[in-house]
Design a protein that fits this description.
It is a single chain. This protein is an alpha+beta fold and 95 residues long. The chain has three helices and six strands, in the order αβαβαββββ. Strands 1-2-6-3 form a four-stranded antiparallel sheet. It has a two-stranded antiparallel ribbon with strand order 4-5. A hairpin with a 2-residue loop joins strand 4 and strand 5. The chain is globular, with a radius of gyration of 15 Å. The relative contact order is 0.27.
């Protein structure tokens, strides 16, 4: 079994995810593409010591990108939106 730090790759911090964190207690992470919701929930609870209510996952497809004459793709990844119990926060998202 993978460790919690292998499952959670990095937090995704944008305007939209910061708004979700402040208003609805929902935090967004890039996760291992093979991880399921149960593994993600356990990893978040272990790393940040919070209680997770729900986990939603999205497979983000690769996008074509072009830099002058070179063409390529941005990589695909899996994104997880995690909702916490009221009153709990994750300090990574606080500004």
């Amino acid at each position: 079994m993978k460790s919690a730090y292998d499952i959670i790759i990095k937090p995704i911090i944008t305007e939209k995810t910061t708004s979700l964190a402040n208003n609805k207690l929902q935090y967004t992470f890039a996760v291992d593409p093979k991880a399921n919701k149960v593994e993600i929930k356990k990893a978040i609870e272990e790393i940040f010591e919070v209680k997770v209510v729900a986990v939603r996952t999205i497979n983000v497809r690769r996008k074509p990108k072009r830099m002058q004459k070179f063409e390529g793709f941005k990589p695909a990844y899996k994104k997880a939106i995690v909702r916490l119990m009221p009153g709990q926060t994750i300090s990574v998202f606080e500004v």
